[in-house]
Specification:
With 484 residues, the protein is α/β, with parallel strands linked by helices. It is 32% helix and 15% strand. Helix 2 runs parallel beside helix 3, helix 3 crosses helix 4 and helix 15 packs across helix 16. The structure holds adenosine monophosphate (AMP). Adenosine monophosphate binds next to helix 3.
Length: 484
């Protein structure tokens, strides 16, 4: 499928897609849409940024449009579960944007806001309900919603649900759904617990998998800065001053860490806000709105809070801390280089995080260029993985030809931005053809540089040229949950 017309979607949906300026389906859409239209269950391995929301929303809308029904009180025909409030809101916005020429009712059921409006919005039933698991169960237990009429159930970001401890809730919800439903499940990764859940939930599913994590990573200009732990805040300040930043998303491992980084940036005169689980829904929305509008250009987030933030135009992702789960790194850097923009991902890596870096490189099958900004690089080097960073053939030696596992500091001018190591741009770590990985052509020179290279290696996977506004209030939808 190379054109949306090939799917023969309902005319009203096709019109909305033209308005959104979507012409070519993404791979996940090409694989998923026909199966869902045909009523099959689907399990999709795909992450945010691949166009997976439209991959399930479009065929679901098509099926609803082709099968209108009188709504029963306190029911929904389609139930979409997502792990976070932000992602839920974005999914609902997508349904409303693609279905703006259909007369369908939809609602949002998320925590952090009062239940009253949600109870009212469900009173007369809706076609589409997008919810987070906890609030959904509260509504069911409070008799505001019955799940016996669900025709289609979507579980989005299943692996994240697992990380966030929602699996028991999901099993409770699934137990309340009718057996003769259609089920779609999406997950960026497939840990055993999720495979188990899939086996329990899905009937003879069509399996689709797109964008192996490596290919997303290849499209983003990624750099590592080797640092001393204590110097991280100062180096971050430096970076944010040096780089030409439209919007930067800075990741920390903990909420406390996020607040600390924000304080440090503010002290240095850099406007920054934190977004994490301790913030109220109102605060999160205010911060996100300021970030979207460009009033605040630096957002400091924890993984859970940042998950699913769909803000186009994030020019930089900075990993203040490297994640210990390599897939998380891929999720993080996927926040940039979205919707046709270019993206740069910079990670500060201290001695303890070297092991995390090695796992990440293994997963993305790239060896990332490294700049060394440690005070005494020749001293505290973490042990190198065998056959990896150093001493792995000629191309992996440092610029001095020193392959003994130590990276020498280069003594030419440092403007504060550090020096790039021997490795230049990312290149495949393990080429399939059996050649040593350093035999791969490199896009740029591997010379030492004294400033971070701001050249763009990234090409976004998706382009959303002048797409229509997906925010709440798209015309013709009955906005049940937002009081309009
Ligand atoms: P998602 O992976 O669903 O979060 O989608 C990522 C971004 O891609 C969103 O901004 C969508 O609006 C956009 N998008 C999805 N499908 C297409 C498409 N076929 N053509 C252009 N943009 C798209």
């Amino acid at each position: 499928m190379t054109d949306f017309h090939d799917f023969e979607l309902n005319d009203a949906i096709a019109r909305a897609l033209t308005e959104e300026k979507y012409t070519t389906p993404t791979p996940i859409q090409a694989q998923t849409i026909p199966s869902v239209m045909a009523g099959r269950d689907v399990i999709g391995i795909a992450q945010t940024g691949t166009g997976k929301t439209a991959a399930f929303a479009l065929p679901i809308l098509h099926r609803l449009a082709g099968n209108p029904r009188r709504l029963e009180h306190k029911t929904c025909r389609v139930l979409v579960l997502s792990p976070t409030r932000e992602l839920s809101g974005q999914i609902l916005d997508s349904f409303r944007a693609y279905g703006r020429h259909l007369r369908l009712k939809s609602a949002l059921a998320i925590g952090g806001v009062s239940m009253g409006a949600q109870v009212r919005s469900l009173m007369h039933g809706v076609e589409i309900l997008v919810a987070t698991p906890g609030r959904l169960l509260d509504l069911v237990q409070g008799n505001a919603l019955r799940l016996g009429g669900v025709e289609c159930f979507v579980l989005d970001e299943a692996d994240r649900m697992l990380d966030m401890g929602f699996i028991a809730d999901i099993r409770k919800i699934v137990a309340k759904l009718p057996a003769n439903r259609q089920t779609l499940m999406f997950s960026a990764t497939m840990p055993a617990a999720i495979a188990d859940l899939a086996a329990h939930m899905l009937r003879d599913p069509v399996k689709v998998a797109v964008t192996p994590t490596a290919s997303t990573a290849e499209r983003i200009d990624q750099r590592i800065i080797r640092v001393d732990r204590a110097a991280k805040p100062a180096i971050l300040v430096d970076l944010l001053r040096q780089e030409t930043i439209d919007r930067a998303l800075v990741f920390t491992r903990t909420k406390h860490g996020a607040d600390k980084v924000v304080r440090r940036l503010n002290q240095a005169g850099i406007a920054a806000e934190a977004i994490h689980g301790n913030k109220s829904q109102g605060q999160r929305e205010r911060v996100l709105a300021a970030f979207r509008s460009g009033k605040v250009r630096t957002l400091v987030a924890t993984d859970i809070a940042a998950r699913g933030i769909d803000v186009d135009g994030i020019s930089h992702v900075v990993n203040f801390d490297l994640p210990n789960v390599p897939e998380t790194y891929v999720h993080r850097i996927g926040r940039t280089a979205r919707a046709g923009a270019d993206g740069i991902a910079i990670s500060l890596c201290d001695a303890e995080e070297m092991a995390f870096l090695r796992d990440i490189e293994k997963l993305i099958r790239l060896s990332l260029p490294m700049t060394d900004r440690r005070a005494h690089p020749q001293r505290a080097e973490a042990p190198a993985a065998p056959g990896r960073r150093d001493g792995h053939g000629h191309g992996n030696r440092n610029a001095n030809g020193n392959g003994n596992g130590q990276r020498r500091r280069q003594d030419h001018g440092d403007n504060g931005a550090g020096r790039q190591s021997h490795r230049g741009r990312p290149h495949r770590a393990q080429p399939q053809n059996g050649q040593p990985r350093n035999a791969q052509p490199r896009k740029t020179s591997v010379q030492e540089t004294s400033a971070p290279d701001t050249g763009i290696a990234a090409v976004a996977f998706l382009r959303r040229d002048g797409a229509a506004d997906r925010r709440p209030g798209a015309p013709r939808w009955t906005d049940q949950s937002r009081g309009s």
